[in-house]
């Protein structure tokens, strides 16, 4: 397969996966499952190329539906609350506790955003109860701040791009999912390498 063919295949996969994400997210309440499905497509993209987009997307949608539905709802509630706090901190001049609320909102936004950067990749790579998924995602976000910051910057750029040109949403969603998948995959590889090294040190020499 030539480099041009691989590039066209990658562009097609990103575009179609992003379009499926938009369609699956349309009811709003299914935003979590749609994001899990999009993350599944990117997680199964290996050195041999992308997986079949349609079947992989809907397989991930069904497999992670229940857990990702709750995760999406929790994320939505957290984002709404933080948005209210940010609006209060930025606009409520001379209001009591304004600075405290603003700082708390900024810290909370970074914490929630960092956790969400890892949440869906963790859900797919390390299946488990949703509480464990959130805890592990938060731990990864705190342990690898450069990856977290890069993911958040990518999300910020994606959000601004969509605000300027809404029609690019499917492509932007696919590109952001691809970026997050590559970033988190490197983190998981380093984490596993450290675990294997630590286990090797504890194995007694016969």
**If you compute it from the alpha carbons, what radius of gyration comes out, rounded to the nearest whole angstrom?**
19 Å
**Secondary-structure element string:** HHHHHHHH
Count of individual domains: 1
* DSSP strand count: 0
Tell me the strand percentage band. under 5%
Mean pLDDT: 87
Query: How many separate helices?
Result: 8
**Uncertain stretches:** none
> Which outline best applies?
globular
CA distance, first residue to last residue:
48 Å
Helical content class: over 70%
Query: How would you characterize the largest beta sheet?
Result: none
Query: Structural class, from helix and strand content?
Result: mainly alpha
What descriptive keywords fit this protein?
mainly alpha
What does this molecule look like?
The protein has helices spanning 3-25, 31-43, 53-63, 65-91, 98-125, 130-143, 145-164, 169-202. It has one domain. It starts with a helix and ends with a helix. Helix 2 crosses helix 4 (65-91) and helix 4 runs antiparallel to helix 5. The chain has 206 residues and is mainly alpha-helical. The longest helix is centred in the last third of the chain and has 34 residues, at 169-202.
